[in-house]
Amino acid sequence: MNDWFILLLLFVCGGLAQLISAKVIQNRKKQAYVSVVIWLAITLSCVILWTVR
């Protein structure tokens, strides 16, 4: 797979996870925490992807 395709796929998955968590979690503080965790995981995945290749 192309690196750009994997990056795009990670961002789409992150956006969907954010959307789902926003619908499920009603507490704003918890929602913000989950959002940060999701995007940190995506950033970490991108860094690992670029350093391994």
Short description:
The chain is an all-alpha fold and 53 residues long. It has helices spanning 3-24, 28-52. Helix 1 packs antiparallel against helix 2.
Report on the structure:
- It is a single chain.
- With 53 residues, the chain is mainly alpha-helical.
- The protein has helices at residues 3-24, 28-52.
- Helix content is 89%, strand content 0%.
- Helix 1 packs antiparallel against helix 2.
- It is elongated.
- The model has no long low-confidence stretch (mean pLDDT 86).
Topology:
Elements: H1 3-24, H2 28-52
Helix pairs in contact: 1-2
Instruction: Provide mean pLDDT, rounded.
Output: 86
Helix residue percentage: over 70%
- What global shape is seen? elongated
Q: What characterizes the major β-sheet?
A: none
Structural class call reads mainly alpha
Strand content: under 5%
Q: Which stretches are low in confidence, meaning pLDDT under 50 for 5 or more residues running?
A: none
Secondary structure tally: strands: 0
The rounded Rg comes to 13 Å
Note the gap between the termini.
Answer: 12 Å
Number of helices: 2
So what's the oligomer here? Answer: single chain
Order of helices and strands: HH
Keywords:
mainly alpha; 53 residues
